[in-house]
């Protein structure tokens, strides 16, 4: 049995080529390997395609296939289940494709592969040569394929064969009006919105003298036919090379078009797992963030369109090294810690070799972990100088299959050029592609004016003084993090963090000495706190990177660059920095698209291991989502669900988990965050049986109005709001389970026992009210006082939220507004002077007197004296 198929996400060239191939192989079945582009799906719904005899993939008997005819594809990774036939004995492979012959991994037994604007044109030329007739409908469908893949015969990839094939099809009755209708489909509202975002984000960078345009966007749902948008943008902006990068849910789609030979988009996107030819290509990438894909695209562009520069322009310095006596097991830890694939091996100050991750892993597989790296390191390596041409290093990497070249000045190792450095090299000192370079750039003067308008004069002076000290010490100084985020959002935040690319403690000490502040430094972390005379504080840190030795462990900190410092943060919206040095005061730095995510109200992680390295970020994601009214991006939410599924949060220490929970419960309205925690399955990490059920959900809802009521009383009684919500959340747990929760959260034994006792006493109070019937006598004021006086404010508020008894609510209200804090004017000494001997009688009299005052039987001191005298007489 013969089968004709094509690549996944088939387009009109695939359709036209399959129909043409069917004329050559009339007994073959036509089967799509998977999905089709939206325009193709619409075509099958709206056109006369009912005359085409396609077979469904699920109806195909794969065991009977003896010949597979592939059109418009040479990659086994792009043909779905048909890939299992590629090396099966007895199955012939015929290929008809217009991509370069070297671009695929499928061997062919027959067929035609040659460069052309479309695969359909290649097959049409064969049909014409063999005088095989086609119907007008078939001719029209084939013309659609040629016109789509050649941009209506305008792409630079268009060849003479495309024109000749189109002319032949026209003679066979092909309908140009029908082709025109399908080539000018109206955009959907979603496509129009996406096109608008892409145009806003469009950036043109210059690499090796070539202009390359890149546009990106992110949506949480799928939008089809972004290739149409690429054509429109290319024509609207007259672009020579264009890459569209669109994140949709947990996938990132890239569509690329090029009119110039210097940019072969097929080669570039093959590096990212996609395919295509020199002028048109695409890729679909799963489970990577938009930032990571853009970084990979940058890598590929540098490799494929390499600027003529020298080693000093791109080398990494200072260099991480290891001594020659380091064991292979220790070497793996170092390579993982610094996230590198190779490191220099040193004998004292002299470099003697290179150890790679591949060699280390193989050695460990063979149980050689205790041996020194000097036993298996590479001792032959390219010695480069800072002036070595990058082209020479690239050729060395390719020809010798190396990934690492040390850079020497005389005998001193001053840097290294890795494959990553080569790929990520920057043009003219600028990052090749920054997400921030959209139509929302904030000029330094504009942002400085915003700062002037939104910040108080003292805060502005602090920031300018910080820049002044940075200038004197010749180090860049930045305001970073939440302070910058909230400044752009127009929200007040005086929690100022300053980061310096240098010695943060030296900066803080110099600032403090100059402006009369106190400085508390932490040498281990390179951080300091500056305390002003009025008590105002700012935090200072050196730019640093962090690595995690195990999932959920506390990070190990090392000095690094500003970009790496920002990359270690939790979410894109917290990666903004504002330069404070005088010349660039107010310059906004955005490496990771924070401005876009602020505008689109997204909470998005920077890399896929974010929640593995620090699971507390799960709670912070929820907190920011609820506090800011944002939403967690789809891929980020998927990563949270994966962290939950893998039980990474079980590795969190109790104190860290409690800290995040307390911060959430202290929010203005934590109910939404609690609901989100429940929906994402996080409550089980507090206790396996903890769920959000009708009972504690109702109670959590009731806490907010109770707290609002209490705070409006202005009673000047301190309390911990989070404890009230915590008690409400744990409502469904019994005593032992509640104790287990407190232990899991590392609550101190003393406070744990206090909470448990308060909870027990609270239950007794509620039981007392539940036993009272409608005919029970009203409680006296002293009885109400006795019920509530031994309970904390948090427990009383919890009881008010929990009880449905109007009598209990009124009693609690009376206690808060009139009874709490009531005391007698007389003391024990006063009663002694009235002739009562020392002993328990004094306490009994004071209790009687307090009850009388609570019940308003006595008011003045004289009333109390009279009351005590009568009580003494009655004794």
Describe this structure in words.
By secondary structure, the chain is of the alpha/beta class. It is 45% helix and 15% strand. The protein has six domains: 2-183, inorganic pyrophosphatase (n-terminal core), CATH 3.90.1640; 189-304, Diaminopimelate Epimerase, Chain A, domain 1 (Roll), CATH 3.10.310.30; 311-423, CBS-domain, CATH 3.10.580; 442-588, Beta Polymerase, domain 2; 671-819, Orthogonal Bundle (cca-adding enzyme, domain 2); 828-874, no CATH class. The strands form seven sheets. Strands 19-20-21-18-17-24-25 form a seven-stranded mixed beta sheet. 40% of the residues are buried.
Mean pLDDT: 87
Please give the largest β-sheet.
7 strands, mixed
Structural class: alpha/beta
Uncertain runs: 426-443
| CATH-derived architecture of the largest domain | Alpha-Beta Complex
**Count of individual helical segments:** 36
CATH T-level topology of the largest domain: inorganic pyrophosphatase (n-terminal core)
List strands and helices in order, with pairings:
Layout: E1 2-5, H1 12-24, E2 29-30, H2 38-46, E3 67-71, E4 92-97, E5 110-113, H3 119-129, H4 136-149, H5 160-171, H6 176-183, H7 189-201, E6 203-207, E7 210-219, H8 226-237, E8 241-248, E9 251-258, H9 265-270, E10 275-276, E11 280-286, H10 290-304, H11 311-314, E12 322-323, H12 328-337, E13 342-347, E14 350-356, H13 357-365, H14 390-400, E15 404-409, E16 412-418, H15 419-423, H16 444-454, H17 457-473, E17 477-480, H18 482-489, E18 497-500, H19 504-515, E19 518-522, E20 527-531, E21 537-542, E22 544-547, E23 556-559, H20 562-567, E24 577-579, E25 588-589, H21 594-600, E26 602-603, H22 610-613, H23 616-628, E27 631-632, H24 634-645, H25 654-665, H26 671-679, H27 694-712, H28 721-729, H29 735-744, H30 749-770, H31 781-788, H32 793-802, H33 806-819, H34 828-833, H35 840-854, H36 861-874
Parallel strand pairs: 1-2, 1-3, 3-4, 4-5, 7-8, 12-13, 18-21, 26-27
Antiparallel strand pairs: 6-7, 8-9, 9-11, 10-11, 13-14, 15-16, 17-18, 17-24, 19-20, 20-21, 22-23, 24-25
